[in-house]
């Protein structure tokens, strides 16, 4: 998968005269800044192309406007700052400027200014010992208001707890973050189940049952757009995951859930359903995950599926959705992503 970062359009070259004593310091500063800006834009372009060719890091932006776009509303500096924050992962919680430049494709001079600014604002912390950065507490202050305002989390919680007790599965709520699933709530039955994701952790869309359930729950237009984007970002992974998507799409109308038998992590089996929400709310899916060594062959379909479907229905009713609400989009999930 790759990311496309917009570049400033280059201005036509103009003939410049040698500065004379009549040129003020301010004018010279402007000229120097313009030259540095042009150099930085060229470096950024090369960095992005290197990232694309070398598959450096994770995709950090969902195809913003390109260099020739006339969209002047896109704030490229803001996008770059967020790109730096997204470069940190649980596996790599500390990164230096050089590593950030490699992962984002941005020039090192730009990275230095961004990390300096983000540190002053509290979104990064600098380790003097290791000369690297880690995410700061400011990042949590951005996410908490969203989680606290998600009414679905409060509504679903008692049903998730009941489902976890009855099945001994980890029960999770997920929503889509561009081309991934992000968990927004989780309920754990006990320490004996190692399938215990954290809030904020991510999963791929097509390789997981909860990701496929989210896609099935999307409108047909949005589903097609996401599938096309997945295909363009990583054709090999898309081709490998398509059989899983096609199988769940074919079976969903008859059974009402998606199923993973170690599709993403070999020892983890999962089952998921889309949870209908009012039109202006985010798409949500509910899943149950469990370690496969504890399972009989059909236990998850025979025992967990009815309880999961019942929990999802009760959550939908509590959110004001009725059983007669239109589900045509869910039943018409297309396994293909166009030509």
What does this structure look like?
By secondary structure, this protein is α+β, with helices and mostly antiparallel strands. The protein folds into two domains: 25-139, Winged helix-like DNA-binding domain superfamily/Winged helix DNA-binding domain (Arc Repressor Mutant, subunit A, Orthogonal Bundle), CATH 1.10.10.10; 150-331, Beta-Lactamase (2-Layer Sandwich), CATH 3.30.450.40. The chain has eleven helices and eight strands. Strand 6 and strand 7 form a beta hairpin. Helix 3 (97-104) crosses helix 4 (108-120), helix 6 packs antiparallel against helix 10 and helix 8 (220-233) runs antiparallel to helix 9 (235-255). InterPro entries: GAF-like_dom_sf, HTH_MetabolicPath_Reg, Tscrpt_reg_IclR_C, Tscrpt_reg_IclR_N, WH-like_DNA-bd_sf, WH_DNA-bd_sf. Residues 75-137 form the HTH iclR-type domain.
- The beta-strand count equals 8
Task: Give the helix tally.
Answer: 11
N-to-C SSE string, H for helix and E for strand = HHHHEEHHEEEHHHEEEHH
Number of individual domains: 2
From the alpha carbons, calculate the radius of gyration and give it in angstroms: 24 Å
The CATH topology assignment of the largest domain is: Beta-Lactamase
| 3D shape | globular
CATH superfamily placement of the largest domain: GAF domain
**Mean pLDDT score:** 80
State the strand order across the main sheet: 5-4-3-8-7-6
Give the low-pLDDT segments: 1-31, 33-68, 324-328
**Gross CATH architecture of the largest domain:** 2-Layer Sandwich
Q: What is the terminal-to-terminal distance?
A: 19 Å
Largest sheet: 6 strands, antiparallel
The oligomerization state is: single chain
